[in-house]
């Protein structure tokens, strides 16, 4: 048996993250929507830094801006900041136990919310509801299952 890398998984995972972000939710649950695109970008920056870096995060953010119809460049900025921090601490994060990794991702998602709030303040846009701050907790809880799923798909075993 040998392991082969699945090159189709990176673009497919970004597409699925975009689709999950577009999935309609009831108005009361909308602020709790996890930032799927950030979770997927975080996985790829941590696990495949050769193919996923700051440029990848910026392009994924631009796709998110276009798909979600927000301010052009906002998600690109947010994801690039997150990818920069992840690249800086990538070597440590890779060897953290899954619970510590999830806490670190939760911190990064919380930082993303702070950046979003700062952008809203700078532009004079209305602030988002308080439930908006709970979404990083949900993203933190989803990190382990998402990581395991993407890792299993990324490293497929083939018998030859």
From TrEMBL:
Among InterPro entries, the record links this protein to: Cell_shape_determining_MreD, MreD_proteobac
UniProt keywords (A-Z) are: Cell inner membrane, Cell membrane, Cell shape, Membrane, Transmembrane, Transmembrane helix
User: Does Cytoplasm show up as a keyword for this record?
Assistant: no
Q: How does it sit in the membrane?
A: Multi-pass membrane protein
Q: Which residues cross the membrane?
A: 53-72, 130-150
The keyword Transmembrane helix is assigned to this record:
yes
Q: What does this protein do?
A: Involved in formation of the rod shape of the cell. May also contribute to regulation of formation of penicillin-binding proteins.
What is the name attached to this protein's record? Rod shape-determining protein MreD
Q: Which organism is it from?
A: Luteimonas salinilitoris
What is the primary gene name for this protein?
A: mreD
């Amino acid at each position: 048996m040998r392991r082969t890398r699945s090159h189709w998984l990176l673009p497919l995972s970004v597409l699925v993250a975009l689709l999950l972000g577009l999935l309609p939710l009831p108005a009361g649950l909308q602020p709790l929507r996890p930032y799927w695109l950030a979770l997927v970008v975080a996985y790829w920056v941590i696990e495949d830094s050769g193919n996923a870096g700051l440029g990848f995060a910026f392009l994924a953010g631009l796709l998110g801006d276009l798909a979600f119809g927000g301010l052009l460049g906002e998600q690109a900025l947010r994801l690039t900041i997150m990818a920069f921090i992840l690249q800086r601490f990538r070597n440590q994060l890779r060897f953290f136990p899954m619970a510590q990794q999830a806490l670190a991702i939760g911190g990064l998602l919380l930082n993303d919310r702070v950046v979003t709030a700062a952008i809203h303040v700078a532009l004079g846009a209305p602030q988002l509801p308080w439930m908006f701050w709970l979404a990083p907790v949900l993203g933190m809880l989803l990190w382990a299952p998402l990581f395991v799923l993407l890792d299993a798909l990324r490293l497929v075993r083939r018998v030859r």
